[in-house]
Write a structure and sequence with these properties.
With about 140 residues, this protein is α+β, with helices and mostly antiparallel strands. The chain is about 50% helix and about 20% strand. Strands 1-5-4-2-3 form a five-stranded mixed beta sheet, with helices on both faces. Helix 2 packs across helix 7 and helix 3 crosses helix 6. The protein contains seven helices and five strands; from the N terminus they run βαααββααββαα. Strand 4 and strand 5 form a beta hairpin. The two termini are about 20 Å apart.
Length: about 140
């Protein structure tokens, strides 16, 4: 996690969005892996957009242009260079990488899962839109709750 503002009591709060998001991810790894793989298949291997979560308002899945993340890195004096390195090395067939964006903060979600994301998608046996709808509703409950 990287902060772009000054630290305040929100960051010490056990109920902040980053901790709630961690709990959501832990509880939904297999479905997140299925979603990430399904979206990867839809977008195509040549597409370098980054899967993200916009925490502002109601949490939702978004795509971030790689160029926008690179520009953010320049604006914050290369403080998120490591995130760019991880995203550049990301292997979607083995791991899930999602960038969560909150007010003045960015968080990288990265995990490997067994079974692998392609298998998780097959096991989910639903389409990407169903996964997005289901996961966004659950995520909203975790973040707001």
């Amino acid at each position: 996690m990287f902060l772009f503002g000054s630290p305040d009591s929100e960051q010490k709060n056990e109920n902040n969005w980053r901790r709630k998001l961690d709990k959501f991810v832990k509880a939904n790894k297999q479905e997140l892996a299925a979603l990430a793989w399904g979206l990867f298949l839809e977008r195509g291997e040549e597409n370098d957009d980054i899967l993200g979560i916009d925490i502002a308002g109601t949490p939702r899945f978004v795509y971030c242009k790689k160029e926008a993340v690179e520009e953010l890195n320049r604006q914050v004096k290369s403080h998120i260079q490591e995130i760019l390195g991880v995203l550049n090395a990301h292997k979607p067939e083995k791991e899930v990488a999602i960038v969560a964006i909150g007010e003045g903060e960015i968080k990288l979600i990265l995990f490997e899962i067994d079974p692998a994301p392609p298998d998780c998608f097959e096991l989910a046996a639903v389409d990407v839109d169903t996964l997005i709808d289901r996961l966004e509703k659950q995520m909203a409950e975790y973040i707001k709750g």
